[in-house]
Amino acid sequence: MRNFGTNVSSTTSITLVGFPEIQNLEYWLATLLLLLYAISILGNTLILFIIKEEHSLHQPMYYFLSILSVNDLGVSFSTLPTVLASMCFHAPETAFDACLAQMFFIHFFSWTESGILLAMSFDRYVAICNPLRYSSVLTNTRVAYMGISIIIRSFCMVFPLPFLLKRLPFCKANVLTHSYCLHPDLIRLPCGDTTINSMYGLFIVISAFGVDSVLILLSYILILHSVLAIASLEGRLKTLNTCVSHICAVLIFYVPMVSVSMVHRFGKCAPEYVHKFMSLLYLFVPPVLNPIIYSIKTKEIRRRLCKMILGPKL
């Protein structure tokens, strides 16, 4: 079954495990996940539609929000096939190459989301600290270049991961602990030396998430410095209110991500379902909550939603 004389994997399939610990509640969990998918897909689609139709939202901040919504849809559609197959249709096996492709897209969209949040923090920094130069600094062309740069960076970082795994021999039981394919989970399967895989994974985490989070923090330190220079309390609160949605988006992305990393590295003795639950939070919370937060906090989006729901009577 395995050719140990070469370093090329001959494995053809991967088994994805859901939550066997809670078999009695499996249907309830599947229903909950389907509901979260529905909220994510519907919410982000509505955000895109409203930004397209509402001309007052044709601004850099909302262009970045559009990119974020497209990215969140990508996250949802990346995990949907295997989650449905393993949780709803009890078909846990997936092709090895399909698993690598899913791993690529999940991590690609994760790295892209980090870059988008950084770009949005730069948008808030310019809007608050240099409001007179906002339109000249964040032109449509520059926003497009920033979006393309974020995508290219994410692609270049994630592209080597499948090939670094393909070169290794697989001689263990090819069973993953999640119902989707993640790099930290996959590198536990090969029986060869995974040092390069681990080091490269750590490098891109530090160079992307680490650098992005530090720059986001720095932008908010500068924003806070500018806000404190405003004389009136009402003016300070009004200015900070423009950042609330973005701050929430940053927290619901980075807090689960850091929690997952901490559990993987320091929670070795934690029950298996803890690792699975933290990964579910990491992948499901941002795509579900982002459209809800921006719908609540953005007056134009909220007004358009009310108009769509209540009709012309509004």
TrEMBL record:
One of its GO terms (cellular component) is plasma membrane. One of its GO terms (biological process) is cellular response to lipid. Pfam families: 7tm_4 (PF13853). It comes from the Eukaryota. CDD domains: 7tmA_OR51-like. Its main location: membrane. The keyword Cell membrane applies. It is a multi-pass membrane protein. The keyword Metal-binding does not apply. One of its GO terms (molecular function) is olfactory receptor activity. SUPFAM superfamilies: Family A G protein-coupled receptor-like (SSF81321). The chain crosses the membrane at residues 27-50, 62-84, 104-122, 143-165, 202-231, 243-267, 273-294. Residues 43-294 form the G-protein coupled receptors family 1 profile domain. It is found in: Cell membrane; Membrane. Keywords: Cell membrane, G-protein coupled receptor, Membrane, Olfaction, Receptor, Sensory transduction, Transducer, Transmembrane, Transmembrane helix. Belongs to the G-protein coupled receptor 1 family. This is Olfactory receptor. The gene is LOC100718464.
